[in-house]
TrEMBL record:
Organism name: Candidatus Viadribacter manganicus
Pfam families: Fer4_20, Pyr_redox_2
SUPFAM superfamilies given in the database record: alpha-helical ferredoxin, Nucleotide-binding domain
Keyword hit for Membrane: no
Protein name: Dihydropyrimidine dehydrogenase
Dihydroprymidine dehydrogenase domain location: 25-135
Domain FAD/NAD(P)-binding: 150-450
Keywords: 4Fe-4S, Iron, Iron-sulfur, Metal-binding, Oxidoreductase
Sample GO molecular function, one term: metal ion binding
Amino acid sequence: MAERMQKFVSIGQSMPEKRAAEARAGDFHEIYADFIAQKATEQASRCAQCGVPFCQTHCPLQNNIPDWLKLTAEGRLREAYEISAATNPMPEVCGRICPQDRLCEGACVIEQSAHGAVTIGAVEKYLTDTAWREGWVAPIKARAERSESVGVIGAGPAGLAGAERLRQRGYEVTVYDRHDRIGGLLVYGIPNFKLEKEVVERRARRLIDGGVKFELNCNVGETISFAELRAKHDAVLIATGVYKPKPLNAPNDRSVVKALDYLITANRVGLGDEVAEFTSGALNAKDRRVVVIGGGDTAMDCVRTARRQGAKSVTCLYRRDKPNMPGSQREVGHAEEEGVDFDWLSAPKSVRAGKSPAVKAVRMQLGPPDESGRQTPQEQPDSAYEVPGDLIIAALGFDAEDLSDWGVDLMRWGAVKADPLSFATSEPGVYAAGDIVRGASLVVWAIREGRDAADAMHAYIQSQAKVAAQ
């Protein structure tokens, strides 16, 4: 092993080639090139093969990262892919959009020793893209067909992960989703420059080919009631995500665009749809002064999308400083390279519409830490100023939509209350996973919870079958 691994001292960290900022800001293609085989092998060989792999323990999916890095370094790519896919139903998605700097790579031992983390995400992406190209991605095969059926509400990452797991166990699985395409926010919320839609579409095709059924344009609660859906299936997984935007709560905020409305429109246009709000210019940043309020990953998606649409200027207002941003520092770096201006320690107080639209803001200063450990922003007296903006977008996070008539207990803020281990709700046979339980979070957590909830649902259906047989 010593010959092939632990080369972090002699080989420096290297990411796949990143396209020049000026070039990539003019289109919606992914910004990183693919690793070539030699580079992937070389970077994988930097792994220290730790006795206690912190990269694995800091991965929500508990991926066997050291194992598949070692196999990659040895050129055993198919085996490496199979180990990667054993715990993750969408490794090429996670390789592209996970904030590795906050998860596996951030916990990497050689990162802590100042040698630069193993580029885990890039190798993961390389492995799975190679597997698709070489035909190694096996179709879904049920272990044995079962008569029971399961309904999954939501075709996002939690729903798709749960559907795949349940179909592998032989259940009849039907996924219901409000959108006209499979993927949820993987398709409509995340821009192409982070996740090109073909990546999601081929996963969707694999599920369809494996026997998973999809009912699209189906908004549960409107198209079909939850009670009707519950009556059709032996168990149900709620994986709707959270779509209700948190309000700006500033005077005249009716002129402010919601981040998700803006991103869904941009993604629909990228998919070839005719969208009236884009054609009219209402949700098109071209030649406009764009102001985005917020500091999370959604805000970064908005500012980088506006830059690609040809905005005259793009400014991000955030009430804390850069080290205290909730979004990925890597994404912030990409945005800065692409010409986005960041106005740190700035909070909106009101919005002015009309001929000279602007955000009226105040300067902030950081006080003592709050319960999250981040310093609390406090308004500086007599610090009011204005930021001109023709298109003002609020990206302040999301809350749960009203599910009060679904018959399951809800938390105070509207999310579904579910057991943290079994994902069972108060209604027997109904489970919930992903953002609708934990709040707006990472795709990798949604995949983890969808996978684990499916296992709990299987145990429940098995137990019900035993009771019925007695």
